[in-house]
Amino acid sequence: MAEEQEPLEILSARHVVEYPYTRSVGAVIGRFLGGLKDKKIEGSLTPSGRVLVPPSEYDPESGASISDFVEVGEAGVVTTWCWVAEPLAKHPFDRPFAWALIRLDGADTALLHAVDAGDSSRMATGMRVKVRWRQQRSGAIGDIECFEAENLGSQDGEIV
Amino acid sequence: MSEAVKKIVTPISIEYTITPGAAPTKFLRGIKEGRLLGQRCPKCSKVYLPPRGSCTVCAVPTVEEVEVSDQGTVTTFCVVNIPFYGQVQEIPYVCAAVVLDGADLPCFGVVQEIAVEEVRMGLRVQAVWVAPEERGYTLENIKYFKPSGQADAPFESYREHL
Asked: Which residue from A50, B95, B104, B119 puts its CA 20 to 30 A from A138's CA?
């Protein structure tokens, strides 16, 4: 009966649910990722002349299919950022870093990636950053290991 | 130039802490000792194994503890022929719903020590436990079910448990 029950020690256990998800990336992102293996960053060119990086299969303005690609620079400007003071297990670094939107030279849109700045005081909107390529590249966004300050002594770039 | 990438692997995982609650805790303590502890509904008399602390049909708490046999009857089963990620058994193998003697809900388990094509509805089976010193708070204490050698159960005896 309930009144005779002794309090039970509460059991608990760690569980992991995992899905080994394989995703078809499509022709446009597929080409973009293949390019990274060769240290080449390509954006898609819209009919109105905008360059989208990462590329898109369709022009967000008109909905037209996009099949033209242009190579963009491997350096650019931080348009916005967020400091990660306590990285999680699956983050790209085990030390503090920034997630940032980076508009590469020649692009009109920004790419989300990590900036290895060491300290949040070295991050600023408008700062110039450049790619640090991974040695072993596989055709994945992680082929860009991160971005780093282009020139620690230079003036900040200009946000347009 | 490198070829376009077709697929990327993006595993997604969630790690969490599970706290089983009062009735499943009793069940887990029992299974560590090699006992199967269910609970009987005071209204419909059905025995839940594993117990959840209430009867989902009658919406009343279940408090009466009932020990259930580790022998039972295969009600339904399927032969697994398809390999998948995380699979631990060699295919083909049989996954069966087994209604244990004294329980009213089937539990799921693998049936072994019998050819896949000989598994049938009504087959009487017996749990094969891991060694007592290796048992934990887990259903994995039952390695699998094997035929008990008894005569097949008549359909009428388990038709309510399908």
From this structure: A50
